[in-house]
Amino acid sequence: VQLQAFGGGLVQAGGYLRVSCYAAVTCFSRYGMAWFRQAPGKEREFVGGISVIGARTYYADTVKVRFTLSRGNAKNTVYLQMNSLKPEDTAVYYCAASTRSNVYVPEYWGRGTLVTVSS
Questions:
Q1: For labelling alongside 72, which of 12, 34, 56, 95 has CA 20 to 30 A away?
Q2: CB of 107 within 8 A of CB of 2?
């Protein structure tokens, strides 16, 4: 399973950004997908996850309401729409995939994409 995240960049506080993750797999719809992030000097943390069909989404309390996950199974892509960004959202964002129902403990990881939010 190969995962490629892209779309990171520099944005001002209060702005928005969408990052995407393409999965080079067959039967993408069978994978639960998730986003994690790691800020400088901090541990990696869960941001959000989406079930295999996309019927259920899960979010960390710190991003709930501001961030939205979606998936396009026909394009093997999962999206993370980030609104009302804050400087504390600055991190490397990683997408991950799971064949299990638990998106919090994925089996596969992609390289991250850097999101920087300036104050």
A1: 12
A2: no
Q: What is the pLDDT of residue 15?
A: 98
**By the 8 A CB rule, do 22 and 67 touch?**
no
Element (H, E) at 117: strand 113-118
Token digits of residue 67? 């961030």
**Tokens at 49, concatenated:** 């996850």
Closest among 90, 73, 71, 111 to 9, alpha carbons compared: 90
SS3 64: coil
User: What's the rounded Cα separation, in Å, for the pair 99 and 97?
Assistant: 7
Instruction: Identify which of 17, 10, 2 has the alpha carbon closest to the alpha carbon of residue 80.
Output: 17
Q: Pick from 84, 71, 75, 78: which is nearest to 117 by CA?
A: 84
52: helix, coil or strand?
coil
Q: Are 80 and 71 in contact (CB under 8 A)?
A: no
